[in-house]
Every structure is written in structure tokens, then in C-alpha cells.
């Protein structure tokens, strides 16, 4: 007969209290691991799986706008139809823009930012010592070569006489390299670096999606480069988490150049103003309904800017992005559909 445990009226509440106290710790640990895997701020440094570390280097959270950019480009072509072949083409183009070339961009950026990350984000894979520099180099070279291979396949599939998607991939990877690597290292200049980043996230995947299903023309190129000025504002948001390291290493990010509050104001004005001007262009080509929808999508962004970002851009940068950016990317799709409908 087994011995029963006596009920201890004192230890039981203590045990319940310990269990309650442990729950937030477990939740925080899970959140930190998720952030680590996605390559977000506030991660933990405990991961040991080399494949998860490699994935963290590629920052999957950053793939989303590039994948979405392909969708916008396909819409602006005016030729996309829901066939199995077109779905497979667009999926392959999303693989190219997101995991492969955005993964390359983020990996090479981490490689050249290892000293800066040691100050700002020491949990990142390279400064934490969880992956060697040689392994990082082999990763971004492989991602680049795979990207070029997929781009060439897409050109063959689309029957392009000139390999447009491959040429865009080469151009985009070159911009990514000079953004991160010396001697140019565009990110040292707050204006040039952030515009290069904004254009890479808006214009380049848009061009790829448009070229895959239609004829890429100068109007689409100019308009998306103009739209990328709103992307410049989004790119500035990412600078606030690195202010201390930027100051120590002499990098001229906008928060360093103008101060936290002025840079935050510049950021939101860029985001709102250039979306509004794109809406004005849609009116000029008689796409009034789409212009009105775009304006309606700007309003919640302004609301979240006031609620979160302008009040404390350093503490609330992630919260602001999670709240406001879905409306910005929906506006991109509305613009793409409008351009396709107008036959621009």
C-alpha cells in the first residue's frame, strides 16, 4: 500500500504562487526564441541548432514585404490570371525575392555589421559566437547563386528574350552589397542607405513581379521609385534600435544626425506624404476609387504614429511596425491593382 502525501496548507499556496510566477517566465522565453528565429529585436541567445542559427541570419520577418512586392507587381502588369502556371510562377518569384535574395541581403548585412551588432544586438549569431564568419560567407554566397539560378529559370519560363528577372536580381544584389560593405557602405549615410533599403523592399520585387507577367516600362519604374520614398520612412524606423552603436561607430543615421524626435517626425512625414502623392497620381489617371481606398489606408497609419511611434520611437518601434505596416502594404496592392486596371 503506497504512502499518501499529507496536505500541507502552507506549502500548497506557495507552490501555486511559484507556478504562477513561472508562467510569465515561460511565455517570455518562448517569445524570445520566436524573435530569435525570425531575426527580430529582443531575441535570446540560447539557440544551438546550426540550421536555426542560419535561418536567424536570414531574418524571415523581412521576407514578407518583398514577397508582397511580387504580388503588387503581378497586379500592376494587368496580365495576371489565376491559372496553376501563374500561381507557380509567382510562388517561385516570391522564393527568389524573399528567402533567397532577401536572405542573402540580411546575411551579408549581418556579416559586415558584426561590430555594430556586438554593441546593439549582442545576441545576434555572429557577435554571440554561435556561427563562424566562414560559415556566414558560405551561406550568403550559396543564397546568391541559388537566387541567380531561380531568376534564370523564371526568365526561361516567361520566354523573355532578355533575361529581365536575372538582370534585376544582379542589380538588386549589387545594391545589397554596396549597402552593407565598405568602401561605399551606403548605410553609413542615413538618406542614401535608407532610400536604397526602401527601394529594395518596394521597387525591386515589384519590378520582378511586373516583368514576369508583363512589360516593365519607365512609368512603373519611376512610380515605384517614387513610392519607395515612403519606404525610406519605413527604413528609418529600423535605425532607432541602433542609435547607441551608430553613435559609437560614427554612422550617420537620421536619429544620430537630427536627434530622436526630429528623426521620428521626418520618418512619419515621409511615410504619409508620398503615399498621399501616389493617391494623387491615381486620381490623375482617373482611378478615383482606388485613390480613395489608399487615402483611407493612410489614416490608421497616422493614428498609430501618434499612439506609438512619435511618443517613444525607441521603445515602440516594433509595436508601431506591427500595427501600421499592414495598412501600408495593403495600400501598395491597391496601387498595383489600380495601375493594372488603368493599363499604365
UniProtKB/TrEMBL annotation:
<protein>
    <submittedName>
        <fullName>Chlorophyll synthase ChlG</fullName>
        <ecNumber>2.5.1.62</ecNumber>
    </submittedName>
</protein>
<keyword id="KW-0149">Chlorophyll biosynthesis</keyword>
<feature type="transmembrane region" description="Helical">
    <location>
        <begin position="322"/>
        <end position="342"/>
    </location>
</feature>
<keyword id="KW-0808">Transferase</keyword>
<dbReference type="GO" id="GO:0046408">
    <property type="term" value="F:chlorophyll synthetase activity"/>
</dbReference>
<keyword id="KW-0472">Membrane</keyword>
<dbReference type="InterPro" id="IPR000537">
    <property type="entry name" value="UbiA_prenyltransferase"/>
</dbReference>
<feature type="compositionally biased region" description="Polar residues">
    <location>
        <begin position="1"/>
        <end position="25"/>
    </location>
</feature>
<dbReference type="InterPro" id="IPR006372">
    <property type="entry name" value="Chl_synth"/>
</dbReference>
<keyword id="KW-1133">Transmembrane helix</keyword>
<feature type="region of interest" description="Disordered">
    <location>
        <begin position="1"/>
        <end position="30"/>
    </location>
</feature>
<feature type="transmembrane region" description="Helical">
    <location>
        <begin position="61"/>
        <end position="81"/>
    </location>
</feature>
<dbReference type="InterPro" id="IPR050475">
    <property type="entry name" value="Prenyltransferase_related"/>
</dbReference>
<feature type="transmembrane region" description="Helical">
    <location>
        <begin position="191"/>
        <end position="208"/>
    </location>
</feature>
<dbReference type="Pfam" id="PF01040">
    <property type="entry name" value="UbiA"/>
</dbReference>
<dbReference type="InterPro" id="IPR044878">
    <property type="entry name" value="UbiA_sf"/>
</dbReference>
<feature type="transmembrane region" description="Helical">
    <location>
        <begin position="136"/>
        <end position="154"/>
    </location>
</feature>
<keyword id="KW-0812">Transmembrane</keyword>
<feature type="transmembrane region" description="Helical">
    <location>
        <begin position="258"/>
        <end position="283"/>
    </location>
</feature>
<feature type="transmembrane region" description="Helical">
    <location>
        <begin position="160"/>
        <end position="179"/>
    </location>
</feature>
<feature type="transmembrane region" description="Helical">
    <location>
        <begin position="220"/>
        <end position="237"/>
    </location>
</feature>
<dbReference type="InterPro" id="IPR011799">
    <property type="entry name" value="ChlG"/>
</dbReference>
Amino acid at each position: 500500500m503506497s504512502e499518501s502525501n499529507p496536505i500541507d496548507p502552507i506549502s500548497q499556496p506557495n507552490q501555486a504562487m511559484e507556478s504562477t510566477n513561472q508562467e510569465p517566465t515561460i511565455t517570455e522565453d518562448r517569445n524570445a526564441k520566436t524573435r530569435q528565429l525570425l531575426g527580430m529585436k529582443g531575441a535570446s541567445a540560447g539557440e544551438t541548432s546550426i540550421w536555426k542559427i542560419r535561418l536567424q541570419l536570414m531574418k524571415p520577418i523581412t521576407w514578407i514585404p518583398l514577397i508582397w512586392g511580387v504580388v503588387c507587381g503581378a497586379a500592376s502588369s494587368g496580365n495576371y490570371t489565376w491559372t496553376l502556371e501563374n500561381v507557380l510562377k509567382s510562388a517561385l518569384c516570391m522564393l527568389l525575392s524573399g528567402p533567397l535574395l532577401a536572405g542573402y541581403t540580411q546575411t551579408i548585412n549581418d556579416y559586415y555589421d558584426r561590430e555594430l551588432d556586438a554593441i546593439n544586438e549582442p545576441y545576434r549569431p555572429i557577435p554571440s559566437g554561435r556561427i563562424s564568419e566562414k560559415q556566414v560567407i558560405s551561406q550568403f554566397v550559396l543564397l546568391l547563386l541559388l537566387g541567380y539560378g531561380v531568376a534564370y529559370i523564371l526568365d526561361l519560363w516567361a520566354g523573355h528574350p532578355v533575361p529581365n528577372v536575372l538582370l534585376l536580381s544582379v542589380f538588386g544584389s549589387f545594391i545589397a552589397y554596396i549597402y552593407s560593405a565598405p568602401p561605399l557602405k551606403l548605410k553609413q549615410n542615413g538618406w542614401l542607405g535608407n532610400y536604397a533599403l526602401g527601394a529594395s523592399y518596394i521597387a525591386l520585387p515589384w519590378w520582378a513581379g511586373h516583368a514576369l507577367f508583363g512589360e516593365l516600362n519607365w512609368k512603373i519604374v519611376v512610380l515605384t521609385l517614387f513610392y519607395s520614398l515612403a519606404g525610406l520612412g519605413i527604413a528609418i524606423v529600423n535605425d532607432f534600435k541602433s542609435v547607441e552603436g551608430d553613435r559609437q561607430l560614427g554612422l550617420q543615421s537620421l536619429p544620430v544626425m537630427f536627434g530622436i524626435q526630429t528623426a521620428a517626425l521626418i520618418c512619419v512625414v515621409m511615410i504619409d506624404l508620398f503615399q498621399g502623392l501616389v493617391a494623387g497620381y491615381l486620381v490623375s489617371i482617373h482611378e478615383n476609387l482606388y485613390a480613395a481606398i489608399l487615402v483611407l489606408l493612410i489614416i490608421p497609419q497616422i493614428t498609430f504614429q501618434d499612439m506609438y511611434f512619435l511618443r517613444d520611437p525607441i521603445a515602440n518601434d516594433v509595436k508601431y511596425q506591427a500595427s501600421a505596416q499592414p495598412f501600408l502594404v495593403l495600400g501598395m496592392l491597391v496601387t498595383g491593382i489600380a495601375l493594372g486596371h488603368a493599363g499604365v
